[in-house]
Amino acid sequence: MQECMEALSACMQACIMCADADAAEGMGRCASMCANCADMCDTMMRMMLRMRGWDMGVMMSMMQSTTMMARACSAECMMHAEMSEHCRMCAMACDQLVMAMEKMMGTMSEAMPMA
Predict the structure, then answer these.
(1) How many degrees, rounded to 5, is the angle at CA 8 between CA 111 and CA 76?
(2) Which of 38, 58, 34, 36 is CA-nearest to residue 47?
(3) Cβ contact 35:76 at 8 Å
(4) Is the model's pLDDT at 72 over the cut of 90?
(5) Higher per-residue pLDDT: 1 or 35
(6) Rounded CA gap, 9 and 44, in Å?
(7) Burial class of 78 by CB neighbour count within 10 A (0 to 12, 13 to 18, 19+)
(8) Rounded to whole angstroms, how far apart are CA atoms 3 and 12?
(9) Number of Cβ atoms within 10 Å of the Cβ of 9
């Protein structure tokens, strides 16, 4: 779980920085994607910290949604990565998050199979 939390935090920070820079550069779609991804990372981290309130179905659904958002953000940022260092860094953070989330979801599925 620690690896996943660190990846969520790193992704959230990269997305916030990228969204701010994108907005200044007039890249509205990328800025919005990054802001949405940052929000989902923040929400996911807060959910993970409330361990007594976990519902496996809800948690897996949220993790899948966060993973999908990170993939979409990475794809958007990769379109600008050659000309924008902040987009390249954001895409990398999103990709790292996807890997960490997929690893954790796999571990959770093995440890607590859903009925």
Answers:
(1) 115
(2) 58
(3) no
(4) yes
(5) 35
(6) 10
(7) middle
(8) 14
(9) 15
The encoded tokens of residue 71 equal: 């993939």
Angle between helices 56-78 and 85-111 (to 10 degrees): 160
Return all residues near 81 (Cβ < 8 A) that are at least 6 apart: 87, 88, 91
Residue carrying structure tokens 């954001």: 90
Q: List the one residue out of 61, 55, 48 whose CA is nearest residue 9.
A: 48
Alpha helices in the chain (DSSP H): 2-24, 28-49, 56-78, 85-111
Specify which of 6-10, 80-84, 104-108 reaches the highest per-range mean pLDDT: 6-10
- For residue 88, give both structure tokens: 């390249």
CA distance 14 to 8: 10
pLDDT digits over 2-61, tens only?
999 999 999 999 999 999 999 999 999 999 999 999 999 999 999 999 878 778 888 899
85 phi/psi in degrees, rounded to 5: -65, -40
